């Protein structure tokens, strides 16, 4: 009897130990995820991608957060990050794939291969993902397309070919709007029949933001292959797809979060670097954050924040309207997150990973 | 480390000791001394190593990458064997010039060369010139320079050399050199074909596979190479002091762009990007040494073309025409000078350059050099150079060097050297003209190299020793990098200082019939940014992809018709980016055996090599695997018939 009791006690201890180490517990454990998550692109082709967690309530930055949660490094380059239906989707290059993270940013399944994914938007059970194709022809991008990705089955169910290098995507009024980055168009895809029409633009385009009326603002940029000077913002009335242009010199052509709306959607903050003549008559490029007033439909004369070169991403804290701006000193060194008040007054700076390109609040 | 050295020496030691006259490694020593004399005439204190045909034979067929890797302590960054770039004394790849005659073979658009695309078999020797030498070599020779050399034989007769190699992972090499001459006129053809499937195995630790974590055995995809080349020389000697030498080099290089380890793991057969480079290089040089004033004139043409993924719209083409002339005179026995001009006319044809900004560019170099000997102990040299470039201001560049013979007996000598050398690099065409990203306001990179060295020689009947110790301090201002500053742009970001100690040893001992050659090279090279437009980057960190410690060791034993060698190569920790990510240090061992056989008096040489015999997994670029143990079997023949 004594023997049985001893064995039972041992079993009880062992089982306690096993339960305490079980995967279920890890999954069920839900850390406080409240914060800003910075997705660092890394160094092209040589990894270095990472996620930084910024706990703004306690002013604590935790770098390499993905590694911390998942125990492995991100070996590719995060091109785009998107939060939808309590999941975070990473569009990654080198390897080209979509990675799904759960609400604690844990990756439980392998990524799904895609061909040069660029940006995405959610609609029902689907993500519409712009892709440049397997081996892009950098002049015309004839093989680029939109992949329709089922987030439940984790498969690409359909592709809509659309030449010209699709970049930012947005959905409004049952239509998918695609910012074309290698030709001067916004493509409009009717999601009922996949028919495509085009809106002519003064320059190539990069990303969208959407207002409360389901109308869109699109960024016009100059790229090294299409060096247009007619940069700025375009306003698309999504009922009739009429475009109105608002010019702003040298809007950032970075493939990152170059513009954002504030919380009441009265302002759009845009990263740009116009040429400015100083007192000695010398021209130099001065980077800043420019403000577009969505009510007056005009840019404010002066930037809310000036003299920042190398800005990658901008977003607004949904709780307090603080401006979060990331910058990179180079392609291989850690970037920084600069926090400003909504009035443009600098508050504090924090070190991030390499090339902090996107910020999401969870 | 000492254990490894003793093991290597032990393996290399002969079991039988006999007296023997034949030497393979003699040439190493003699050529080195000759090279010193020629190169140092106007550039005292310059450190130069000559890599001979035996070094080339021992270093495989893949490219200059392998040769430098095995014989020098110069770091090569490589992505799996298809793209390799040089980091000479802590500098960037476009701060090292690579010369073929009077042509710098570096791409004018990128400013650098892929060392995999330069096949040492085509050349008779490779000279490595350490430190700044812009005053004699021109723009770009900031960290060092490499000279690809061809010998003239001026013999009457025919010589045919041929080499065939088969190696692991589909490596094939076929090369031949054919010499025909009558003592006055000689034609030398050198050609080769090389293919490497290069699908080597490695342990993949970076799969990104969260469902099956851990490392797995993987095979590299997308790292194949195929290349062929031809050098045709035609040389004519009017007399003992007057000759003209011409060489035409055609090179065709194809290579895939390898997948990093994670992409490789998930590779599902998609098309892999590739790069094709086609180069035509012609250089002709006339020498007239008959009079007191010696004259040299050169004429060259270069056509470089690169395409990616067979996209002809994205072609990158440059054409260059080069004309040079130089006079040289030893005014008295202990004083001489040389002066020259070099003119280049360059036509770029690059899809991202605007014709309204750049149609052509002209460069004119004017230079002069002087030497002065004081007694038998002192030698002083001075050089100056000024480059003029269309719409660009290049700095005036001086250099001065001194050598002091501390002692010299019949068998040994100790030389102390010191130099101060300016250097410069004008920005590449891409830096200045690439779309809206090029920056026409860039300044030339401007370096200053301070160097001191000690060089000890001992030559006795059975022993030869050469020990070199150099310390250097290289300060490069206006360092150019591409940065994301509003737009992606080439900018002068600041100043970098590279310091170092280099030790090189060569010990050769004849013991009976056996000759043993031992070499040990070690470099300690801290490199730091000292000024930067972004203050956060002045943080005392070692520059990325520059090992602070690096060294190699080799033992060669020459015994009758046999030759054995074993090499060890150590590369220290490297930072892969500005975060804490590092590439682990590694020690590789290569070995090989040669056997000479004679068939009807014709020499055939068979060799068998094993590289990375310890089967190490290692990386030279973050997330790119390098091959583990590989084998290669080579047969080379040297058939000659010269009339005395």
Helix and strand topology:
The complex is a heterodimer of chains A (362) and B (644).
Chain A: H1 2-20, H2 23-28, E1 36-40, E2 50-55, E3 60-62, H3 65-70, E4 77-84, E5 87-93, E6 97-101, E7 112-113, E8 117-123, E9 126-131, E10 145-150, E11 155-161, E12 166-172, E13 175-180, E14 185-190, E15 196-200, E16 204-210, E17 216-221, E18 232-237, E19 242-247, E20 259-261, E21 267-272, E22 275-277, E23 283-285, E24 288-293, E25 298-299, E26 305-306, E27 311-316, E28 323-327, E29 334-340, E30 346-354, E31 356-361
Chain B: H1 2-12, H2 26-40, E1 47-51, H3 53-58, H4 64-71, E2 75-78, E3 84-87, E4 96-100, E5 103-104, E6 125-130, H5 134-137, E7 144-149, E8 156-167, E9 171-182, E10 185-196, E11 201-204, E12 216-219, E13 225-239, E14 242-256, H6 261-265, E15 274-288, E16 294-308, E17 316-332, E18 335-350, E19 361-374, E20 378-389, E21 392-408, E22 412-425, H7 429-433, E23 445-459, E24 463-485, E25 487-511, E26 514-524, E27 527-532, E28 549-559, E29 562-571, E30 574-575, E31 582-583, E32 586-599, E33 602-611, E34 630-643
Parallel strand pairs in B: 4-7
Antiparallel strand pairs in B: 1-6, 2-3, 4-5, 6-7, 8-9, 8-34, 9-10, 10-13, 11-12, 13-14, 14-15, 15-16, 16-17, 17-18, 18-19, 19-20, 20-21, 21-22, 22-23, 23-24, 24-25, 25-26, 25-27, 26-28, 28-29, 29-32, 30-31, 32-33, 33-34
Please name the defining characteristics of this protein.
heterodimer, A: 362 residues, mainly beta, five-stranded antiparallel beta sheet, four-stranded antiparallel beta sheet, 31 strands, 9% helix, 47% strand, B: 644 residues, 22-stranded antiparallel barrel, five-stranded mixed beta sheet, 7 helices
């Amino acid at each position: 009897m004594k023997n049985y009791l001893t064995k039972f006690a041992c079993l009880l201890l062992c089982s306690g130990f096993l339960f305490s180490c079980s995967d279920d517990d890890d999954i069920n454990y839900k850390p406080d995820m409240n914060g800003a998550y910075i997705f660092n692109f890394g160094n092209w082709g040589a990894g270095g991608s990472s996620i930084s967690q910024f706990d703004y309530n306690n002013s604590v930055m935790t770098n390499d957060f993905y590694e911390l949660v998942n125990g492995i490094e991100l070996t590719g380059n995060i091109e785009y990050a998107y939060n939808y239906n309590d999941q975070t989707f990473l569009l990654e290059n080198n390897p080209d794939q979509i990675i799904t993270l759960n609400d604690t940013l844990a990756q439980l399944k392998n990524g799904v291969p895609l061909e040069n994914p660029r940006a995405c938007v959610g609609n029902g059970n689907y993500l519409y993902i712009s892709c440049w194709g397997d081996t892009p022809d950098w002049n015309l991008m004839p093989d680029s397309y939109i992949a329709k990705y089922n987030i439940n089955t984790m498969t690409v169910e359909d592709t809509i070919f659309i030449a010209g290098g699709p970049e930012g995507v947005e959905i409004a009024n049952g239509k998918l709007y695609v910012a074309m980055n290698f030709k001067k168009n916004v493509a409009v895809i009717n999601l009922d029949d996949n028919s495509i029409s085009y809106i002519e633009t003064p320059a190539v385009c990069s990303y969208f933001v959407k207002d409360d009326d389901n109308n869109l603002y699109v960024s016009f940029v100059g790229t090294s292959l299409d060096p247009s000077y007619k940069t700025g913002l375009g306003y698309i009335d999504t009922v009739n797809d009429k475009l109105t242009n608002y010019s702003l010199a040298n809007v950032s052509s970075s493939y990152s979060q170059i513009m954002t709306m504030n919380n009441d959607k009265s302002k759009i903050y845009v990263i740009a670097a116009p040429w400015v003549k100083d007192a000695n008559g010398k021209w130099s490029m001065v980077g800043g954050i420019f403000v577009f007033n969505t009510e007056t439909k005009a840019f404010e004369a002066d930037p809310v924040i000036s003299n920042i070169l190398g800005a990658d991403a901008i977003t607004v804290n949904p709780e307090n309207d603080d401006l979060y701006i990331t910058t990179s000193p180079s392609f291989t060194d850690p970037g920084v997150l600069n926090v400003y008040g909504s009035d443009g007054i600098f508050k504090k700076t924090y070190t991030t990973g390499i090339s902090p390109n996107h910020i999401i609040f969870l | 480390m000492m254990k490894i050295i003793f093991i290597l020496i032990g393996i290399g030691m002969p079991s039988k000791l006999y007296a023997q006259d034949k030497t393979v490694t003699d040439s190493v020593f003699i050529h080195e001394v000759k090279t010193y004399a020629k190169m140092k005439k106007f550039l005292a204190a310059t450190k130069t190593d000559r890599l001979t045909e035996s070094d080339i034979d021992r270093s495989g067929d893949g490219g200059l990458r392998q040769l430098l890797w095995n014989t020098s302590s110069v770091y090569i960054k490589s992505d799996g064997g298809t793209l390799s770039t040089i980091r000479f004394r802590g500098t960037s790849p476009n701060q090292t010039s690579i010369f073929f005659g009077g042509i710098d073979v570096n791409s004018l658009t990128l400013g650098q060369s892929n060392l995999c695309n330069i096949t040492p078999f085509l050349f008779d020797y490779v000279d490595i010139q350490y430190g700044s030498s812009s005053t004699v070599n021109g723009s770009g020779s900031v960290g060092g320079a490499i000279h690809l050399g061809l010998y003239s034989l001026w013999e009457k007769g025919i010589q045919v050399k041929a080499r065939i190699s088969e190696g692991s992972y589909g490596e094939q090499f076929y090369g031949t050199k054919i010499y025909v001459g009558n003592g006055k006129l000689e034609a030398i053809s050198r050609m080769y074909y090389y293919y490497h499937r290069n699908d080597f195995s490695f342990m993949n630790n970076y799969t990104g596979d969260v469902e099956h974590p851990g490392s797995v055995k993987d095979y590299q995809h997308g790292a194949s190479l195929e290349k062929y080349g031809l050098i045709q020389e035609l040389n004519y000697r009017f007399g003992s002091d007057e000759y003209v030498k011409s060489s035409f080099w055609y090179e065709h290089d194809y290579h895939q762009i390898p997948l990093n380890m994670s992409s490789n793991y998930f590779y599902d057969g998609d098309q892999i990007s590739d790069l094709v480079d086609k180069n035509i290089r012609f250089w002709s040089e006339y020498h007239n040494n008959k009079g007191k004033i010696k004259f040299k004139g050169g004429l060259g043409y270069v056509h470089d073309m690169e395409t990616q993924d067979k996209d002809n719209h994205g072609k990158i083409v440059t054409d260059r025409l080069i004309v040079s002339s130089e006079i040289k005179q030893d005014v008295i026995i202990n004083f001489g000078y040389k002066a020259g001009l070099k003119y280049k006319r360059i036509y770029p044809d690059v899809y991202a350059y605007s014709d309204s900004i750049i149609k052509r560019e002209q460069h004119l170099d004017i230079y002069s050099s002087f030497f002065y000997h004081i007694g038998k102990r002192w030698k002083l040299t001075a050089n100056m150079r000024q480059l003029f470039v269309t719409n660009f201001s290049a700095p005036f560049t001086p250099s001065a060097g001194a050598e002091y013979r501390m002692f010299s007996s019949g068998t040994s000598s100790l030389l102390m050297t010191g130099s101060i050398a300016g250097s410069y690099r004008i920005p590449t065409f891409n830096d200045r003209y690439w779309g809206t990203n090029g920056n026409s306001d860039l300044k030339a990179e401007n370096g200053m190299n301070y160097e001191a060295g000690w060089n000890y020689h001992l030559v006795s009947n059975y022993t030869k020793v050469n020990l070199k110790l150099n310390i250097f301090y290289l300060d490069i201002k206006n360092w150019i990098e591409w940065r994301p500053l509003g737009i992606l742009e080439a900018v002068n970001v600041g100043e970098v200082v590279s310091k170092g100690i280099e030790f090189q040893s060569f010990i050769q001992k004849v013991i009976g019939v056996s000759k043993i050659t031992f070499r040990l090279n070690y470099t300690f090279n801290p490199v730091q940014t000292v000024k930067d437009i972004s203050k956060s980057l002045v943080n005392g960190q070692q520059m990325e992809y520059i090992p602070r410690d690096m060294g190699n060791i080799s033992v060669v034993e020459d015994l009758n018709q046999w030759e054995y060698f074993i090499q060890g190569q150590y590369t220290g920790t490297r930072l892969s980016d500005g975060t804490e990510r590092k590439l682990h240090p590694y020690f590789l061992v290569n070995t090989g055996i040669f056997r000479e056989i004679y068939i009807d008096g014709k020499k055939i040489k068979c060799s068998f090599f094993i590289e990375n015999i310890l089967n190490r997994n290692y990386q030279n670029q973050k997330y790119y695997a390098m091959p583990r143990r590989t084998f290669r079997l080579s047969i080379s023949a040297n058939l000659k018939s010269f009339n005395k």
